[in-house]
Design brief:
The complex is a heterodimer of chains A (363) and B (221). By secondary structure, chain A is an alpha+beta fold. Chain A has eleven helices and 18 strands. Chain A is 31% helix and 30% strand. The longest helix of chain A is centred in the middle third of the chain and has 16 residues. The interface between A and B is medium-sized, with 28 and 24 residues.
Chain lengths: 363, 221
């Protein structure tokens, strides 16, 4: 795709090409100013209808408002991370989405079907893994999965193929003929993911799918979620493990006390959080001359973390690349040897804490 | 298709359960033990009749307790969630459980009574024709009691918050409700009590099951 950019320095326009979602470094051919250009993701730029649409969903249990006016859309292929503290209303929202709970008010549609009125139609497109996965203990893994496959409308020939594929995907092949009562908690958790994936659903709804899994399994599940998303499956999942959400989610929603505090892509969430850009400098040897960089235009603050480690806050509105170039130049002129220079980014954990403090309204 | 699949699975689950093993094997053995221990004191009491009495008193109670415990346990362990998010009707789950337990317990009763008849036949001192009508009448009444008890078990399983509460309720309520069909013909001195018991049994079972299904359909998980 092609994009025409106006240089903020000299106002000359220039055209550059790139692929959707790509961020490119651009130098103005007229004045030499350096900047960045981002090509929007095609999915976001089109008016593609949402696969899941929640409008003002509320759920009240007597005098407790568990979910308060929650609205969001999820488009096909998105990985939607739903995060929030305990009791924020994540599981309640998920249960409303899959039709296990009735909403008190609002509208919910999945793939064009109204929930809960048309849930039997919508259920054909949904794969769901609850927070606590429960199987009938007397069944074997294969028996349980075969039953769920048949109930989801699969034919006999494809069921065994899909069972084998998905068990292999999660390293569960050896448990195929084992009784569920003999399986460990983590294995049952993974089996919960297998049953959700079995009928190749268009929408995968997972409630805390990664909790209780070992690091290797978590890595595998995240890889599977990314592959599914690339193949067009929409994934909605809740999690307490923010680093996992950060790894896979293309859109994140922070929920607190039943209402949405913030929703957007990770970059969007970070952009509001970041008042300044920050870089981390590590010097080979301690030198007081590093303070000279404080005179550079665009440098806001210098924080000396240790004898060699320095954090430099840079104006968000300034040209970061130009300022970094000037920092390196100044340090070299002052005989400060640089071991490394790294732009630091806030983690989702920091962003999450920021929005909870900012937006959390206790009832 | 979905209903027959769930029913088949439930049958498989129940007939392999420990309670059912007790019914399949334990009930005839229990009847035999009672027969041996009372053979001196209860002169001429045929084992088939004894078994029939035993079955009618135990069968219904076991069916209702089994169903209540099973439903509450599956609610607690979130087993229903994975079924309810699939394109099936909710009543399939309850009706298949009811039929599975009803069929299993009824077959266990038939086996136990057949065992009794067989022993009586070999002992050959008792006139089988004489006791046969009594056994058949008793068995029909037992079927009616099992049906009502099973429906009570389903209803209490759906509404009870815990296994303890459910079992206590099912023992008390199940006993009272399942005795209604047997009491009515006695109170009104009816000519054909077996038919009346059967008809009342079917009506009460349908009412209780319908109530259970309505509440289950409204239930949030």
């Amino acid at each position: 795709m092609e994009k025409t950019i106006r240089c903020p320095n000299c106002s000359k326009t220039t055209t550059c090409t790139g692929s959707p979602g790509e961020t490119k470094k651009l130098t103005c051919p007229s004045c030499g100013a350096i900047g960045k250009v981002t090509f929007e993701d095609i999915k976001d730029s089109t008016s593609e209808p949402a696969l899941v649409s929640l409008r003002n969903i509320s759920k009240r249990y007597k005098d407790i408002l568990a979910v308060d006016n929650v609205s969001f859309d999820i488009k096909q292929g998105e990985i939607f991370g739903y995060i929030g503290p305990n009791g924020a209303g994540k599981t309640t929202t998920i249960k409303i989405m899959v039709g296990l709970l009735n909403k008190t008010s609002g509208n919910l549609s999945i793939n064009g079907y109204q929930m809960p009125e048309q849930k039997e139609h919508a259920h054909r497109f949904i794969g769901y893994m609850p927070q606590e996965v429960g199987f009938q203990k007397w069944r074997t893994t294969n028996h349980a999965l075969t039953t769920f496959g048949k109930l989801s409308g699969m034919n006999n020939t494809s069921i065994q193929q899909r069972i084998d594929e998905n068990l292999k995907l999660l390293n569960l092949t050896e448990y195929k003929h084992k009784k569920i009562s003999k399986l460990s908690g983590g294995t049952i958790q993974k089996l919960g993911i297998v049953q959700a994936l079995l009928h190749n659903p268009k929408l995968l709804i997972l409630d805390e799918p990664l909790s209780g899994l070992d690091p290797e399994s978590r890595y595998q599940v995240k890889k599977i979620l990314k592959e599914l998303s690339n193949n067009g499956t929409t994934v909605f999942f809740s999690s307490h493990i923010l680093s996992d959400v950060e790894d896979v989610a293309t859109k994140i929603c922070i929920l607190d006390w039943g209402h949405i505090v913030k929703i957007g892509s990770l970059d969007e969430l970070k952009s509001e959080f970041l008042k300044e850009n920050q870089i981390e400098l590590i010097l080979s040897k301690r030198s007081d001359k590093f303070n000279e960089i404080g005179k550079i235009s665009g440098v806001q603050k210098i924080i000396e973390k240790s004898s060699q480690k320095i954090l430099v806050n840079i104006e968000k509105t300034g040209d970061t690349d130009e300022i970094i170039h000037n920092i390196i130049k100044t340090l070299m002129e002052n005989n400060c040897r640089i071991r490394s220079i790294t732009p630091t980014e806030p983690s989702l954990d920091e962003v999450y804490q920021y929005y909870l403090r900012k937006g959390g309204v206790k009832q | 298709m979905s209903f027959s699949l769930i029913l088949k699975d439930e049958l498989k689950g129940f007939y392999k359960s420990k309670v059912m093993i007790f019914l399949w094997i334990g009930l005839p053995i229990l009847a035999l033990l009672v027969h041996i221990s009372t053979s001196n004191s209860v002169e001429g009491m045929p084992i088939s009749l004894l078994t029939s009495m035993l079955v009618s008193s135990i069968g219904g109670l076991l069916a209702s307790v089994m169903l209540t415990v099973n439903i509450i346990n599956e609610k607690d362990t979130r087993v229903f969630d994975l079924f309810l998010i699939r394109p099936i009707k909710r009543w399939y789950l309850l009706v298949s459980k009811f039929l599975a337990v009803y069929i299993c317990v009824s077959i266990a009763c038939i086996l136990a009574i057949s065992f009794g008849i067989m022993i009586d036949f070999f002992e050959s001192e008792i006139l089988l024709d004489f006791v046969m009508k009594g056994i058949i009448d008793s068995f029909i009444m037992t079927l009616s009691v099992i049906a009502i008890s099973s429906a009570v078990g389903i209803l209490i399983g759906v509404i009870s918050p815990s296994i303890v509460v459910g079992v206590v309720l099912v023992i008390f309520v199940g006993n009272y409700v399942s005795s209604i069909p047997a009491i009515i013909p006695l109170v009104f001195n009816m000519d054909n009590p077996v038919t009346i018991v059967l008809v009342i049994g079917v009506i009460i079972t349908i009412i209780l099951m319908s109530l259970g299904i309505i509440l289950f359909n409204k239930k949030e998980f």
